[in-house]
Amino acid sequence: MDSGCEIRIHHNRRLPDFLQSVNLKYVKLGYHYLISNLLALCFIPLIIITSIEASQMNPDDLRHLWLHLQYNLVAIIICSAFLVFGLTVYIMTRPRPIYLVDYSCYRAPDHLKAPFDRFMEHSRLTGDFDESSLEFQRKILERSGLGEDTYVPEAMHSIPPQPSMAAAREEAEQVMFGALDNLFANTNINPKNIGILVVNCSLFNPTPSLSAMIVNKYKLRGNIRSFNLGGMGCSAGVIAVDLAKDLLQVHRNTYAVVVSTENITQNWYFGNKKSMLIPNCLFRVGGSAVLLSNKSVDRRRAKYKLVHVVRTNRGADDKAFMCVYQEQDSAGKTGVSLSKDLMAIAGESLKANITTLGPLVLPISEQLLFFATLVVKKLFNKKMKPYIPDFKLAFDHFCIHAGGRAVIDELEKNLQLSPLHVEASRMTLHRFGNTSSSSIWYELAYVEAKNRMRKGNRVWQIAFGSGFKCNSAVWEALRNVKPSDNSPWEDCIDKYPVKLLV
Protein backbone atom coordinates (compact mmCIF):
# COMPACT_ATOMS: atom_id res chain seq x y z
CA MET A 1 0.00 0.00 0.00
CA ASP A 2 1.73 3.14 -1.01
CA SER A 3 2.62 5.60 -3.61
CA GLY A 4 -0.33 5.53 -5.94
CA CYS A 5 -2.65 6.67 -3.18
CA GLU A 6 -5.14 9.45 -3.78
CA ILE A 7 -4.00 12.46 -1.81
CA ARG A 8 -5.96 15.26 -3.38
CA ILE A 9 -7.05 16.56 0.00
CA HIS A 10 -5.82 20.06 -0.76
CA HIS A 11 -5.78 21.58 -4.23
CA ASN A 12 -2.07 22.41 -4.08
CA ARG A 13 -0.95 18.79 -4.03
CA ARG A 14 -0.21 18.22 -7.69
CA LEU A 15 2.51 16.75 -9.82
CA PRO A 16 5.13 19.35 -10.76
CA ASP A 17 4.98 20.73 -14.28
CA PHE A 18 7.31 18.57 -16.39
CA LEU A 19 7.95 21.54 -18.67
CA GLN A 20 9.89 23.38 -15.97
CA SER A 21 13.01 21.22 -15.93
CA VAL A 22 14.63 18.18 -17.49
CA ASN A 23 17.53 16.36 -15.85
CA LEU A 24 20.20 15.76 -18.48
CA LYS A 25 21.66 12.71 -16.71
CA TYR A 26 18.48 10.73 -17.35
CA VAL A 27 18.61 11.66 -21.03
CA LYS A 28 22.18 10.35 -21.12
CA LEU A 29 21.06 7.16 -19.38
CA GLY A 30 18.41 6.55 -22.02
CA TYR A 31 20.94 6.99 -24.80
CA HIS A 32 23.33 4.67 -22.97
CA TYR A 33 20.69 1.95 -23.20
CA LEU A 34 20.28 2.73 -26.90
CA ILE A 35 24.00 2.68 -27.71
CA SER A 36 24.46 -0.59 -25.79
CA ASN A 37 22.44 -2.27 -28.58
CA LEU A 38 24.39 -0.53 -31.36
CA LEU A 39 26.10 -3.75 -32.47
CA ALA A 40 22.77 -5.37 -33.26
CA LEU A 41 21.45 -2.21 -34.92
CA CYS A 42 24.47 -2.05 -37.25
CA PHE A 43 24.81 -5.77 -37.88
CA ILE A 44 21.24 -6.41 -39.01
CA PRO A 45 21.33 -3.94 -41.97
CA LEU A 46 24.69 -5.44 -43.03
CA ILE A 47 23.15 -8.91 -43.19
CA ILE A 48 20.19 -7.59 -45.19
CA ILE A 49 22.43 -5.82 -47.74
CA THR A 50 24.64 -8.90 -48.12
CA SER A 51 21.59 -11.12 -48.67
CA ILE A 52 20.20 -8.79 -51.35
CA GLU A 53 23.54 -8.69 -53.20
CA ALA A 54 23.91 -12.49 -53.03
CA SER A 55 20.39 -13.01 -54.41
CA GLN A 56 21.27 -10.97 -57.51
CA MET A 57 24.36 -13.05 -58.47
CA ASN A 58 24.15 -15.42 -61.47
CA PRO A 59 26.16 -18.68 -62.00
CA ASP A 60 28.95 -16.86 -63.92
CA ASP A 61 29.40 -14.42 -61.04
CA LEU A 62 29.66 -17.31 -58.61
CA ARG A 63 32.25 -19.10 -60.79
CA HIS A 64 34.43 -15.98 -61.07
CA LEU A 65 34.13 -15.44 -57.32
CA TRP A 66 35.27 -19.02 -56.65
CA LEU A 67 38.30 -18.63 -58.93
CA HIS A 68 39.20 -15.37 -57.20
CA LEU A 69 38.90 -16.94 -53.76
CA GLN A 70 41.18 -19.87 -54.74
CA TYR A 71 44.09 -17.43 -55.13
CA ASN A 72 43.33 -15.58 -51.88
CA LEU A 73 43.12 -18.43 -49.35
CA VAL A 74 44.76 -16.49 -46.49
CA ALA A 75 42.34 -13.59 -46.90
CA ILE A 76 39.44 -16.04 -46.93
CA ILE A 77 40.57 -17.67 -43.70
CA ILE A 78 41.03 -14.32 -41.95
CA CYS A 79 37.68 -12.97 -43.13
CA SER A 80 35.93 -16.19 -42.18
CA ALA A 81 37.47 -16.10 -38.72
CA PHE A 82 36.32 -12.52 -38.19
CA LEU A 83 32.85 -13.40 -39.49
CA VAL A 84 32.52 -16.43 -37.21
CA PHE A 85 33.82 -14.42 -34.25
CA GLY A 86 31.40 -11.58 -34.92
CA LEU A 87 28.43 -13.92 -35.28
CA THR A 88 29.40 -15.74 -32.09
CA VAL A 89 29.65 -12.49 -30.13
CA TYR A 90 26.32 -11.30 -31.49
CA ILE A 91 24.51 -14.57 -30.74
CA MET A 92 26.00 -14.88 -27.25
CA THR A 93 25.37 -11.27 -26.20
CA ARG A 94 22.02 -10.47 -27.78
CA PRO A 95 19.13 -10.63 -25.29
CA ARG A 96 16.68 -13.45 -25.73
CA PRO A 97 13.13 -12.34 -26.54
CA ILE A 98 10.76 -12.64 -23.57
CA TYR A 99 7.17 -13.55 -24.39
CA LEU A 100 4.07 -12.97 -22.29
CA VAL A 101 2.07 -16.11 -22.98
CA ASP A 102 -0.96 -15.09 -20.90
CA TYR A 103 -1.95 -13.58 -17.56
CA SER A 104 -4.85 -13.74 -15.15
CA CYS A 105 -6.40 -11.25 -12.70
CA TYR A 106 -8.28 -12.37 -9.58
CA ARG A 107 -11.86 -11.27 -9.04
CA ALA A 108 -13.26 -11.73 -5.54
CA PRO A 109 -16.75 -13.18 -4.90
CA ASP A 110 -19.65 -10.73 -4.78
CA HIS A 111 -20.25 -11.10 -1.04
CA LEU A 112 -16.94 -9.27 -0.44
CA LYS A 113 -18.10 -6.09 -2.18
CA ALA A 114 -17.85 -2.91 -0.10
CA PRO A 115 -20.36 -0.23 -1.17
CA PHE A 116 -19.72 3.18 0.39
CA ASP A 117 -22.67 3.00 2.81
CA ARG A 118 -21.58 -0.39 4.14
CA PHE A 119 -17.97 0.73 4.34
CA MET A 120 -18.88 3.80 6.41
CA GLU A 121 -21.32 1.88 8.61
CA HIS A 122 -18.70 -0.77 9.41
CA SER A 123 -16.12 1.93 10.10
CA ARG A 124 -18.53 3.55 12.55
CA LEU A 125 -19.42 0.28 14.29
CA THR A 126 -15.80 -0.66 14.94
CA GLY A 127 -15.63 2.13 17.51
CA ASP A 128 -12.03 2.94 16.60
CA PHE A 129 -12.65 6.14 14.64
CA ASP A 130 -13.79 9.52 15.96
CA GLU A 131 -16.29 11.69 14.08
CA SER A 132 -13.57 13.73 12.41
CA SER A 133 -11.90 10.58 11.05
CA LEU A 134 -15.21 9.18 9.82
CA GLU A 135 -16.01 12.39 7.97
CA PHE A 136 -12.50 12.43 6.51
CA GLN A 137 -12.93 8.88 5.18
CA ARG A 138 -16.31 9.76 3.70
CA LYS A 139 -14.80 12.68 1.78
CA ILE A 140 -11.90 10.56 0.53
CA LEU A 141 -14.31 7.92 -0.75
CA GLU A 142 -16.39 10.53 -2.58
CA ARG A 143 -13.33 12.03 -4.29
CA SER A 144 -11.34 8.82 -4.83
CA GLY A 145 -12.75 7.65 -8.15
CA LEU A 146 -13.72 4.27 -6.66
CA GLY A 147 -17.11 2.74 -7.44
CA GLU A 148 -19.53 0.72 -5.34
CA ASP A 149 -18.33 -2.74 -6.47
CA THR A 150 -14.80 -2.93 -5.06
CA TYR A 151 -13.83 -5.69 -2.62
CA VAL A 152 -12.41 -5.86 0.89
CA PRO A 153 -11.29 -9.12 2.55
CA GLU A 154 -13.55 -11.38 4.60
CA ALA A 155 -12.02 -10.34 7.92
CA MET A 156 -12.99 -6.70 7.37
CA HIS A 157 -16.66 -7.59 6.85
CA SER A 158 -16.88 -8.91 10.40
CA ILE A 159 -18.02 -6.62 13.22
CA PRO A 160 -15.70 -6.14 14.91
CA PRO A 161 -13.05 -6.84 12.22
CA GLN A 162 -10.87 -9.91 12.75
CA PRO A 163 -7.45 -9.16 11.23
CA SER A 164 -5.65 -12.32 12.33
CA MET A 165 -2.62 -14.04 10.79
CA ALA A 166 -4.86 -16.95 9.77
CA ALA A 167 -7.27 -14.56 8.01
CA ALA A 168 -4.36 -12.85 6.22
CA ARG A 169 -3.08 -16.21 4.99
CA GLU A 170 -6.57 -17.08 3.81
CA GLU A 171 -6.81 -13.83 1.83
CA ALA A 172 -3.38 -14.43 0.26
CA GLU A 173 -4.31 -17.99 -0.72
CA GLN A 174 -7.64 -16.98 -2.25
CA VAL A 175 -6.07 -14.24 -4.35
CA MET A 176 -2.87 -15.99 -5.47
CA PHE A 177 -4.36 -19.45 -6.02
CA GLY A 178 -7.43 -17.99 -7.72
CA ALA A 179 -5.27 -16.14 -10.26
CA LEU A 180 -2.90 -19.08 -10.76
CA ASP A 181 -5.66 -21.67 -11.20
CA ASN A 182 -7.16 -19.58 -13.97
CA LEU A 183 -3.75 -18.96 -15.57
CA PHE A 184 -2.85 -22.66 -15.65
CA ALA A 185 -6.29 -23.56 -17.01
CA ASN A 186 -6.07 -20.98 -19.83
CA THR A 187 -2.52 -21.89 -20.88
CA ASN A 188 -2.63 -25.68 -20.31
CA ILE A 189 0.74 -25.41 -18.55
CA ASN A 190 1.76 -28.13 -16.14
CA PRO A 191 2.93 -26.33 -12.97
CA LYS A 192 5.93 -28.66 -12.81
CA ASN A 193 7.23 -27.06 -16.01
CA ILE A 194 7.65 -23.71 -14.24
CA GLY A 195 11.34 -23.00 -13.71
CA ILE A 196 11.15 -19.50 -12.14
CA LEU A 197 8.67 -18.07 -9.64
CA VAL A 198 8.65 -14.43 -8.50
CA VAL A 199 6.06 -13.23 -5.96
CA ASN A 200 5.67 -9.64 -4.78
CA CYS A 201 3.56 -8.44 -1.86
CA SER A 202 4.57 -5.32 0.00
CA LEU A 203 3.12 -5.58 3.51
CA PHE A 204 2.42 -9.27 4.22
CA ASN A 205 5.53 -11.44 4.41
CA PRO A 206 4.83 -14.55 6.51
CA THR A 207 7.09 -17.52 7.17
CA PRO A 208 7.07 -19.72 5.12
CA SER A 209 6.95 -17.10 2.38
CA LEU A 210 4.17 -16.50 -0.13
CA SER A 211 6.33 -18.07 -2.84
CA ALA A 212 6.73 -21.16 -0.63
CA MET A 213 2.93 -21.33 -0.24
CA ILE A 214 2.63 -21.50 -4.04
CA VAL A 215 5.38 -24.13 -4.33
CA ASN A 216 3.57 -26.24 -1.73
CA LYS A 217 0.11 -25.79 -3.24
CA TYR A 218 1.09 -26.75 -6.79
CA LYS A 219 3.93 -29.15 -5.86
CA LEU A 220 6.41 -27.28 -8.02
CA ARG A 221 9.71 -28.97 -8.77
CA GLY A 222 12.55 -29.04 -6.27
CA ASN A 223 15.01 -26.99 -8.31
CA ILE A 224 12.64 -24.10 -9.01
CA ARG A 225 14.20 -20.67 -8.60
CA SER A 226 11.71 -18.87 -6.36
CA PHE A 227 11.86 -15.30 -5.07
CA ASN A 228 9.69 -13.33 -2.66
CA LEU A 229 9.78 -9.51 -2.93
CA GLY A 230 8.49 -7.54 0.07
CA GLY A 231 8.15 -3.89 1.00
CA MET A 232 8.53 -2.61 -2.58
CA GLY A 233 5.08 -1.10 -2.97
CA CYS A 234 2.80 -0.55 -5.92
CA SER A 235 5.58 -0.59 -8.52
CA ALA A 236 6.82 -4.04 -7.50
CA GLY A 237 4.90 -5.74 -10.32
CA VAL A 238 7.25 -4.19 -12.88
CA ILE A 239 10.25 -4.99 -10.64
CA ALA A 240 9.12 -8.64 -10.51
CA VAL A 241 8.82 -8.75 -14.32
CA ASP A 242 12.32 -7.25 -14.61
CA LEU A 243 13.75 -9.89 -12.26
CA ALA A 244 12.01 -12.67 -14.18
CA LYS A 245 13.33 -11.22 -17.45
CA ASP A 246 16.93 -11.27 -16.17
CA LEU A 247 16.55 -14.85 -14.97
CA LEU A 248 15.09 -15.93 -18.30
CA GLN A 249 18.18 -14.48 -20.02
CA VAL A 250 20.33 -16.91 -18.04
CA HIS A 251 18.18 -20.04 -17.84
CA ARG A 252 17.26 -21.37 -21.26
CA ASN A 253 14.05 -22.98 -22.44
CA THR A 254 11.87 -22.39 -19.40
CA TYR A 255 8.83 -20.60 -18.03
CA ALA A 256 8.60 -17.91 -15.37
CA VAL A 257 5.51 -17.03 -13.34
CA VAL A 258 5.15 -13.59 -11.74
CA VAL A 259 2.51 -13.20 -9.03
CA SER A 260 1.66 -9.66 -7.87
CA THR A 261 -0.67 -8.92 -4.97
CA GLU A 262 -1.21 -6.97 -1.76
CA ASN A 263 -2.70 -8.12 1.53
CA ILE A 264 -5.20 -5.91 3.34
CA THR A 265 -6.34 -8.06 6.26
CA GLN A 266 -3.56 -7.26 8.72
CA ASN A 267 -2.79 -3.82 7.32
CA TRP A 268 -6.04 -1.99 7.97
CA TYR A 269 -5.47 1.11 10.07
CA PHE A 270 -7.65 1.51 13.17
CA GLY A 271 -6.49 4.94 14.30
CA ASN A 272 -7.31 8.59 13.72
CA LYS A 273 -4.20 10.00 12.01
CA LYS A 274 -5.46 11.46 8.73
CA SER A 275 -2.40 10.65 6.62
CA MET A 276 -2.70 6.98 7.63
CA LEU A 277 -6.45 6.69 6.96
CA ILE A 278 -6.23 7.22 3.20
CA PRO A 279 -5.06 3.66 2.35
CA ASN A 280 -8.19 2.25 4.08
CA CYS A 281 -10.33 4.14 1.59
CA LEU A 282 -8.38 3.21 -1.55
CA PHE A 283 -6.81 -0.24 -1.32
CA ARG A 284 -8.92 -3.23 -2.29
CA VAL A 285 -8.55 -6.97 -2.86
CA GLY A 286 -6.79 -7.96 -6.09
CA GLY A 287 -3.91 -9.88 -7.60
CA SER A 288 -2.46 -11.11 -10.89
CA ALA A 289 -0.44 -14.03 -12.25
CA VAL A 290 1.66 -13.65 -15.42
CA LEU A 291 3.26 -16.44 -17.48
CA LEU A 292 6.50 -15.47 -19.24
CA SER A 293 8.56 -17.65 -21.58
CA ASN A 294 11.90 -17.54 -23.41
CA LYS A 295 10.96 -20.45 -25.68
CA SER A 296 10.90 -19.47 -29.36
CA VAL A 297 8.05 -21.91 -29.95
CA ASP A 298 5.83 -19.85 -27.63
CA ARG A 299 5.94 -16.81 -29.91
CA ARG A 300 3.11 -18.26 -31.95
CA ARG A 301 0.68 -18.37 -29.04
CA ALA A 302 2.00 -15.52 -26.87
CA LYS A 303 0.06 -12.29 -26.50
CA TYR A 304 2.97 -9.87 -26.10
CA LYS A 305 6.73 -9.49 -26.32
CA LEU A 306 8.62 -7.55 -23.66
CA VAL A 307 10.38 -4.58 -25.29
CA HIS A 308 11.81 -2.47 -22.44
CA VAL A 309 11.87 -2.18 -18.67
CA VAL A 310 13.09 1.12 -17.19
CA ARG A 311 13.39 1.55 -13.42
CA THR A 312 13.98 4.78 -11.48
CA ASN A 313 14.82 4.79 -7.76
CA ARG A 314 14.98 7.96 -5.66
CA GLY A 315 15.56 6.23 -2.33
CA ALA A 316 18.79 8.14 -1.72
CA ASP A 317 16.72 11.28 -1.15
CA ASP A 318 15.41 11.46 2.44
CA LYS A 319 12.08 13.06 1.51
CA ALA A 320 11.46 10.47 -1.17
CA PHE A 321 12.41 7.65 1.19
CA MET A 322 10.01 8.86 3.90
CA CYS A 323 7.04 9.91 1.76
CA VAL A 324 5.35 6.49 2.08
CA TYR A 325 6.25 5.09 5.45
CA GLN A 326 4.86 2.28 7.56
CA GLU A 327 4.87 3.27 11.23
CA GLN A 328 2.91 3.44 14.47
CA ASP A 329 0.88 6.49 15.42
CA SER A 330 0.95 8.12 18.84
CA ALA A 331 -1.53 5.50 20.11
CA GLY A 332 0.70 2.64 18.96
CA LYS A 333 -1.53 1.64 16.00
CA THR A 334 0.30 0.60 12.83
CA GLY A 335 -0.45 2.01 9.41
CA VAL A 336 1.07 3.48 6.27
CA SER A 337 1.59 7.24 6.43
CA LEU A 338 1.51 9.34 3.26
CA SER A 339 3.55 12.53 3.17
CA LYS A 340 2.15 15.81 1.86
CA ASP A 341 5.14 15.80 -0.54
CA LEU A 342 4.05 12.54 -2.18
CA MET A 343 2.68 14.04 -5.40
CA ALA A 344 5.73 16.24 -5.94
CA ILE A 345 8.08 13.31 -5.35
CA ALA A 346 6.03 11.09 -7.65
CA GLY A 347 6.29 13.76 -10.33
CA GLU A 348 10.06 14.00 -10.05
CA SER A 349 10.36 10.21 -10.24
CA LEU A 350 8.08 10.07 -13.26
CA LYS A 351 10.03 12.82 -15.00
CA ALA A 352 13.29 10.94 -14.47
CA ASN A 353 11.74 7.72 -15.72
CA ILE A 354 10.21 9.07 -18.91
CA THR A 355 13.36 11.07 -19.70
CA THR A 356 15.30 7.80 -19.61
CA LEU A 357 12.63 5.91 -21.53
CA GLY A 358 12.24 8.54 -24.27
CA PRO A 359 15.35 7.74 -26.37
CA LEU A 360 14.36 4.07 -26.39
CA VAL A 361 10.82 4.46 -27.71
CA LEU A 362 10.27 7.86 -29.32
CA PRO A 363 10.51 8.41 -33.09
CA ILE A 364 13.55 10.32 -34.35
CA SER A 365 11.46 13.42 -35.13
CA GLU A 366 10.41 13.77 -31.49
CA GLN A 367 13.94 13.20 -30.23
CA LEU A 368 15.37 15.86 -32.56
CA LEU A 369 12.79 18.40 -31.41
CA PHE A 370 13.51 17.57 -27.78
CA PHE A 371 17.28 17.95 -28.15
CA ALA A 372 17.04 21.09 -30.25
CA THR A 373 15.01 22.87 -27.58
CA LEU A 374 17.25 21.46 -24.84
CA VAL A 375 20.40 22.83 -26.53
CA VAL A 376 18.79 26.23 -27.06
CA LYS A 377 17.73 26.29 -23.41
CA LYS A 378 21.19 25.35 -22.12
CA LEU A 379 23.18 27.71 -24.36
CA PHE A 380 20.97 30.67 -25.19
CA ASN A 381 17.73 30.99 -23.26
CA LYS A 382 17.58 29.38 -19.83
CA LYS A 383 13.97 30.51 -19.35
CA MET A 384 12.83 28.57 -22.38
CA LYS A 385 10.67 25.56 -21.59
CA PRO A 386 12.05 22.27 -22.93
CA TYR A 387 10.00 20.41 -25.48
CA ILE A 388 8.10 17.52 -23.91
CA PRO A 389 7.89 14.72 -26.50
CA ASP A 390 4.54 13.34 -27.57
CA PHE A 391 4.49 9.84 -26.10
CA LYS A 392 1.27 9.14 -27.98
CA LEU A 393 3.51 8.66 -31.04
CA ALA A 394 5.38 5.88 -29.21
CA PHE A 395 2.53 4.05 -27.47
CA ASP A 396 -0.96 2.96 -28.45
CA HIS A 397 -2.17 2.12 -24.95
CA PHE A 398 -1.35 3.48 -21.49
CA CYS A 399 -1.71 1.47 -18.27
CA ILE A 400 -1.11 4.01 -15.51
CA HIS A 401 -1.18 2.54 -12.01
CA ALA A 402 -4.70 3.07 -10.66
CA GLY A 403 -3.51 4.54 -7.38
CA GLY A 404 -6.03 7.35 -7.15
CA ARG A 405 -7.94 9.84 -9.24
CA ALA A 406 -5.47 12.68 -8.64
CA VAL A 407 -2.52 10.68 -9.98
CA ILE A 408 -4.41 9.73 -13.15
CA ASP A 409 -5.65 13.31 -13.61
CA GLU A 410 -2.17 14.79 -13.36
CA LEU A 411 -0.53 12.25 -15.69
CA GLU A 412 -3.26 12.85 -18.23
CA LYS A 413 -2.53 16.56 -18.05
CA ASN A 414 1.28 16.46 -17.99
CA LEU A 415 1.65 13.84 -20.72
CA GLN A 416 -1.11 15.52 -22.77
CA LEU A 417 -3.14 12.32 -23.02
CA SER A 418 -6.74 12.07 -24.14
CA PRO A 419 -9.55 10.68 -21.95
CA LEU A 420 -9.43 7.52 -24.06
CA HIS A 421 -5.77 6.96 -23.17
CA VAL A 422 -6.51 6.98 -19.43
CA GLU A 423 -9.86 5.23 -19.66
CA ALA A 424 -8.44 1.83 -18.65
CA SER A 425 -6.86 3.35 -15.53
CA ARG A 426 -9.98 5.26 -14.48
CA MET A 427 -12.31 2.32 -15.02
CA THR A 428 -9.99 -0.08 -13.18
CA LEU A 429 -9.91 2.31 -10.23
CA HIS A 430 -13.69 2.57 -10.33
CA ARG A 431 -14.38 -1.18 -10.63
CA PHE A 432 -11.58 -2.72 -8.52
CA GLY A 433 -10.04 0.14 -6.54
CA ASN A 434 -6.31 0.39 -5.94
CA THR A 435 -5.12 -3.21 -6.14
CA SER A 436 -1.51 -2.10 -5.72
CA SER A 437 1.07 -3.76 -8.00
CA SER A 438 -1.52 -5.79 -9.90
CA SER A 439 -3.57 -2.78 -11.08
CA ILE A 440 -1.65 -2.44 -14.37
CA TRP A 441 -2.79 -5.96 -15.34
CA TYR A 442 -6.46 -5.20 -14.68
CA GLU A 443 -5.98 -2.19 -16.96
CA LEU A 444 -4.43 -4.29 -19.72
CA ALA A 445 -7.33 -6.74 -19.36
CA TYR A 446 -9.72 -3.80 -19.81
CA VAL A 447 -8.09 -2.84 -23.13
CA GLU A 448 -8.37 -6.44 -24.32
CA ALA A 449 -12.00 -6.72 -23.17
CA LYS A 450 -12.79 -3.64 -25.27
CA ASN A 451 -11.17 -5.38 -28.30
CA ARG A 452 -8.75 -2.48 -28.81
CA MET A 453 -5.48 -4.40 -28.88
CA ARG A 454 -4.12 -4.87 -32.41
CA LYS A 455 -1.01 -6.62 -33.68
CA GLY A 456 1.99 -4.34 -33.37
CA ASN A 457 0.38 -2.07 -30.76
CA ARG A 458 2.70 -0.92 -27.97
CA VAL A 459 1.60 -0.78 -24.35
CA TRP A 460 3.19 1.36 -21.65
CA GLN A 461 2.71 0.11 -18.09
CA ILE A 462 3.87 2.64 -15.50
CA ALA A 463 3.68 2.34 -11.72
CA PHE A 464 4.88 4.15 -8.60
CA GLY A 465 6.09 2.59 -5.35
CA SER A 466 7.44 3.35 -1.91
CA GLY A 467 11.13 3.94 -1.60
CA PHE A 468 10.47 6.02 -3.83
CA LYS A 469 10.33 4.32 -7.24
CA CYS A 470 8.83 4.81 -10.68
CA ASN A 471 9.03 1.84 -13.06
CA SER A 472 7.95 1.30 -16.66
CA ALA A 473 7.41 -1.79 -18.81
CA VAL A 474 6.82 -1.65 -22.57
CA TRP A 475 5.09 -4.53 -24.39
CA GLU A 476 4.38 -5.15 -28.06
CA ALA A 477 1.28 -7.09 -29.12
CA LEU A 478 2.15 -10.10 -31.28
CA ARG A 479 -1.38 -10.47 -32.60
CA ASN A 480 -4.87 -9.02 -32.28
CA VAL A 481 -5.35 -9.87 -28.62
CA LYS A 482 -8.69 -11.13 -27.35
CA PRO A 483 -9.57 -11.37 -23.66
CA SER A 484 -8.75 -14.69 -22.02
CA ASP A 485 -11.38 -16.89 -20.39
CA ASN A 486 -12.59 -15.67 -16.99
CA SER A 487 -11.33 -12.15 -17.57
CA PRO A 488 -12.07 -9.90 -14.57
CA TRP A 489 -14.20 -7.75 -16.91
CA GLU A 490 -16.08 -10.65 -18.44
CA ASP A 491 -19.54 -9.90 -17.06
CA CYS A 492 -19.33 -6.11 -16.70
CA ILE A 493 -17.35 -4.69 -19.64
CA ASP A 494 -20.54 -3.55 -21.40
CA LYS A 495 -21.23 -1.19 -18.49
CA TYR A 496 -17.96 0.65 -19.04
CA PRO A 497 -16.85 3.32 -19.44
CA VAL A 498 -19.07 4.92 -16.81
CA LYS A 499 -19.38 8.64 -16.35
CA LEU A 500 -17.55 9.61 -13.18
CA LEU A 501 -18.76 12.41 -10.95
CA VAL A 502 -16.14 15.04 -10.20
What would you say this structure looks like, in words?
The chain is an alpha/beta fold. Helices cover 43% and strands 15% of the residues. The protein has 16 helices and eleven strands. The strands form two sheets. A nine-stranded mixed sheet has the order 3-2-4-5-1-6-11-10-9, sandwiched between helices. A two-stranded antiparallel sheet has the order 7-8. The protein is globular, with a radius of gyration of 25 Å.
Shape descriptor reads globular
Per DSSP, what share of the residues sits in E-state strands of 2 or more residues?
5-15%
Number of helices: 16
Task: Give the helix proportion (percent range).
Answer: 40-55%
N-to-C CA distance: 24 Å
Q: Return the structural class.
A: alpha/beta
SSE ordering:
HHHHEHHHEHEHEHEEHEEHHEHHHEE
The averaged pLDDT comes out at 87
Spatial sequence of strands, sheet with the most strands: 3-2-4-5-1-6-11-10-9
| Cα radius of gyration in angstroms | 25 Å
- Flag low-confidence runs: 3-13
Biggest sheet character? 9 strands, mixed
Count the strands?
Answer: 11
List the helices and strands and how they pair.
Layout: H1 24-35, H2 38-55, H3 59-70, H4 73-93, E1 99-105, H5 116-126, H6 131-144, H7 165-187, E2 194-200, H8 210-218, E3 225-229, H9 236-250, E4 255-261, H10 274-282, E5 287-293, E6 304-313, H11 318-322, E7 324-328, E8 334-338, H12 342-361, H13 364-379, E9 397-400, H14 405-414, H15 423-432, H16 439-449, E10 458-465, E11 469-477
Parallel strand pairs: 2-3, 2-4, 9-10
Antiparallel strand pairs: 1-5, 1-6, 4-5, 6-11, 7-8, 10-11
Helix pairs in contact: 1-12, 5-6, 6-10, 7-8, 15-16
